[in-house]
Write a structure and sequence with these properties.
Elements: H1 2-10, H2 13-18, E1 26-30, H3 35-46, E2 50-57, H4 64-72, E3 80-85, H5 120-135, E4 139-141, H6 157-170, H7 172-175, E5 182-184, H8 192-201, H9 226-237
Parallel strand pairs: 1-2, 1-4, 2-3, 4-5
The structure holds zinc ion (ZN).
Length: 250
């Protein structure tokens, strides 16, 4: 049974994930110019891959992250970079893709916030998978984080593991028994402070990153959305100063 073989082979992926690669091997990195995805890119390089960056113009409420992604992809280590257009505004349902206000100074609670974009990581990973098949690449990096996150269901380890299994039932190379897709999530169990410390060790310039959901017209971060709050807390806990500009000069 092909399916059984694929599932068995998936269990050996942990070992494959840790092996060092030579620089000729490529990995697709989902890149938004944010703190996490930029750190993820540096880790992919450290793991021995040549990173290829994939960003999305998905109808997000501001263009700052894409401008930064376009400007800095090469600088932060990508050999190649594309921005795929998907208009999630047509679907809406999130403060990032519809006319819904971004919550500010939100108290932590158990609720999934309105900044959650329905199925976004499923969609992004599916595009990465499609591109991986075309490029004959088997490694995909995504900077999801299960500790310091906003409660998004598609940032959890169960989701990533299920997607990886699905990917290996969906690709020609896996079904032909050639090679399996590996989804790398090096930030999954790190706190924001640990992510920042790791990135600084690897030479990441966080001044080139953008995390805010609701920047002003000049691109300065608001300092009050969930993403800004997590970022600022991470820098404070890491004992570092966040180099990006904030409205009000935080
Ligand atoms: Zn913000």
């Amino acid at each position: 049974m092909i399916d059984d073989c694929v599932i068995c082979a998936i269990s050996s992926l942990t070992e494959n994930k840790t092996r060092k690669k030579n620089m000729a091997e490529k990995a697709i990195v989902l890149y938004s110019s944010g703190l996490d995805s930029t750190t993820c890119m540096a880790i992919a390089k450290q793991d021995g891959f040549t990173p290829i960056a994939l960003s999305f113009s998905y109808g997000q409420r501001h263009s700052v992250e894409l401008e930064k992604a376009q400007k800095y992809a090469q600088l932060v280590g990508a050999a190649k970079h594309i921005i795929v257009d998907i208009d999630l505004k047509q679907i809406g349902g999130s403060a990032l893709t519809a006319d819904i206000e971004v919550p500010k100074d939100r108290l932590e609670d158990e609720q999934i916030p309105v900044t959650y974009v329905p199925a976004r990581n499923t969609i992004f990973l599916s595009y990465a998978l499609a591109w991986a098949e075309v490029l004959n690449v088997f490694d995909i990096y995504i900077g999801v984080n299960a500790l310091d996150y906003s409660g998004y269901p598609d940032c959890r380890p169960e989701f990533i593991s299920a997607f990886e299994q699905m990917a290996n039932l969906a690709t020609k190379a896996a079904v032909d028994g050639k090679e399996l897709i590996r989804i790398h999530t090096p930030l999954l169990q790190l706190t924001k402070a640990q992510i920042i410390a790791t990135g600084l060790e690897l030479g990441v310039d966080y001044g080139l990153t953008h995390s805010c959901y609701d920047p002003d017209a000049t691109g300065r971060a608001c300092g009050h959305c969930d993403s800004c709050i997590l970022r600022l807390k991470g820098f404070a806990e890491a004992g570092q100063r966040d180099p990006v500009a904030y409205v009000g000069g935080k």
